[in-house]
Amino acid sequence: MNRPEPALGNPRNTIAVLNQYRFVFQKKYGQNFLIDTHVLDKIISAAQIGPEDFVVEVGPGIGTMTQYLAYKAGRVAAIEIDKALIPILEDTLSGYDNVTILNEDVLKVDLCRLAEEENGGRPIKVVANLPYYITTPIIMGLFESHVPVESITVMVQKEVADRMRTGPGSKDYGALSLAVQYYARPDLIANVPPNCFIPRPRVGSAVVRLTRHEKPPVEAENEAYLFQLIRASFQQRRKTLVNGLNHAADVLVPKEKFEEALKKMGLTPDIRGEALTLPQFAELANLTWELQKTLHRDL
User: Fold this and answer.
1) How far is the C-alpha of 257 from the C-alpha of 266, rounded, in Å?
2) In 178-282, which ranges are E strands?
3) pTM value?
4) Parent domain of 235
5) For 103, which DSSP code?
């Protein structure tokens, strides 16, 4: 089947579709539809979509980027939570025989199973214009559930893009920075101003490509425990690292044992979590994991 060239992305066409269906934007879903063909081209180029790829798109909206993906990819699964958009998607994507529309909450979809059934378990590519309120849960869900993802190319709030890419000492540095960098290499593709969307968001956006590491850059004896430490270290940024860990319900290692571990690492006990690199967090986790495991078993 010859697939039609994408027609959406042009503001006039987008508005015509919205008017035809009398679509009402839902604030609870954080809906902002992209209306800039240059940005769409950059996303598709950055995601390196080709005829062999199975792509999962999160939040297709009226199908603007979906058309671009379907034109280039082998197959596309478009996951949309808003049931009011399903008839629109069925219309705007009717010319593409390689798209499956799923009216689901992506956080409840078994993407490992989807990748297995639709792509034989081979790595998939994820592309999304993510609602700001749900960016972190979606990205971390993809990584932590070990979905076979080759890359994630996403439109996110500019501030979130900065947090993904920054290092120790920055005000933007935190648990998301460390988690993203543990699993992937983050690359900024483009900054996107509010006038590229309908309706216009109040903040700037950015396109980021997360290319998954073949293996993490550090070795953690227990990955879940490493991220328990990282999350606890940033929950109260004004506290020292050991005081933050001491107040974390799921971290059982006594304060003095963390102080001993930090000393062994050549760090002072009054250091804050925001000063530690990913390798240092991994070393701290590995030095204290056996004690955490023993104490957990004793409960």
Assistant:
1) 14
2) 184-192, 197-198, 205-212
3) 0.91
4) 223-298
5) -
